[in-house]
Amino acid sequence: VILNLKYALMIERPFWQSRLEECWGEAPIVWLSGVRRVGKTTLVESLGTDRIFYLNCDLPRVAEMVRDPELFFRECDKSIVVFDEIHQLEDPTRILKIGADLFPDLKLLATGSSTLAASRKFKDTLTGRKRSVHLTPVLWDELPAFGATLSQRLHRGGLPPALLARSKSVGFYREWLDSFFARDIQRLYGFRDIHRFNALLEYLLRQSGGLHEVTSTSSALGISRPTVESHLQAMEVCHAITVVRPFHGGGQHEIVKQPRIYGFDTGFVSFARGWDPLRPEDYGSLWEHLVLEHLQAHNPYHPVRYWRDRAGNEIDFIIVRGRDEIDAIECKWDPSAFDSSALRRFRGYYPQGQNYLVTPSADPAWRKQYGELTVKICTPSGVRVDPV
To answer: What is the pLDDT of residues 361-374, one digit of tens each?
Structure first.
């Protein structure tokens, strides 16, 4: 395991490095968020020790170092200042504001497991001074760099320590769940009952990808509806779940409220479901999760939705590129299992936009006619969404 972790430190992640640089081109502060062990610190270190001044804000001495922020920044001889776990500092907003306003040549990077606004210490969310990057588990197109197979990625997940391990360790996932509650959820929200929280999170992981209804979840777990709702909000803010909301045009025959909830990582989904080893019928569901993560990472300014009508016709993912440009994305482990009937129904409502069938075997991509519909069959890398 130690050798694997040392190897992880040497893996370049150019997509994420480029995302950070792009954000710095727009604002002086980048907020890098992502779940514990996803690789935030390693990504930061890959920017080059000659460029970064790294501060681990868990250490008490760091608070003393930045007690006078203006003096600290003036004496800094690096082009990038990194505040890892910045929410541990007493007044992080003030420090970042001074750095951004008085030292415009500096690039500032702050990390945390949640979105910036989750911490009560950030009364000002630094509007106009910052851009946000959500670091996901290892992406589809990063697998060659990690020397991992797609099957390993689906089974073990995309947290580098788990992906690079020689085998799947139950202890890793259990320890992570306990640590996530203690170090992230409890600190931010003050929740006290780890057993109730983890029971809900593991329930959501087992149901991952399905339609979610708060009342039925509350009844199944014996947890009050307000508790379920508050815990769900905390999980979403801290990136443990992704809530995919329905797309609709206000039609009476479409689902307009009920979301689908996805677990943040395929390794934890397979762990919660007891899928060890994976069977052939397991791959399709996990593949859908991997496609979602790819869409989130490569199209951060386009929220991912899903579509479903009351007759049960459903499109896995929807991306709205404009008022009349609505892309439909279907995920299939085996493209021969694709049924175009739901897509035809969807295009009856929304005729304009690209149609994608995303499958791991479609490299190079090709196009196929399904009646009057043209569908691009491709890997996740073949889905193209124009910038906002």
So the answer is: 999 999 999 999 99
Q: Are 357 and 375 in contact (CB under 8 A)?
A: yes
Question: Which residues are bridge partners to 357 per DSSP?
Answer: 330, 377
Contact 69, 94 (CB under 8 A): yes
Phi, psi dihedral angles at 179 (to 5 degrees): -70, -40
Question: Secondary structure of the chain in the HEC alphabet?
Answer: CHHHHHHHHCCCCHHHHHHHHHHHCCCCEEEEECCCCCCHHHHHHCCCCCCEEEEECCCHHHHHHCCCHHHHHHHCCCCEEEEECHHHCCCHHHHHHHHHHHCCCCEEEEEECCCHHHCCCCCCCCCCCEEEEECCCCCHHHHHHHCCCHHHHHHHCCCHHHHCCCCCCHHHHHHHHHHHHHHHHHHHHCCCCHHHHHHHHHHHHHCCCCECCHHHHHHHHCCCHHHHHHHHHHHHHCCCEEEECECCCCCCCECCCCCEEEECCHHHHHHHHCCCCCCHHHHHHHHHHHHHHHHHHHCCCCCEEEEEECCCCEEEEEEEEECCEEEEEEECCCHHHCCCHHHHHHHHHCCCCCEEEECCCCCCCEEEEECCEEEEEECHHHCCCCCC
Contacts of 96 (CB under 8 A, 6+ apart): 29, 83, 86, 108, 110, 126, 129, 130
Q: What is the pLDDT of residues 297-343, one digit of tens each?
A: 999 989 999 999 999 999 999 999 888 899 999 999 999 999 999 99
Question: Can you give the pTM of this predicted structure?
Answer: 0.93
Residue 325, amino acid: E
Length of the chain in terms of residues written:
388
- Give the pLDDT confidence score for residue 387 in this predicted structure: 46
pLDDT in tens, 39-81: 999 999 899 889 999 999 999 999 999 999 999 999 999 999 9
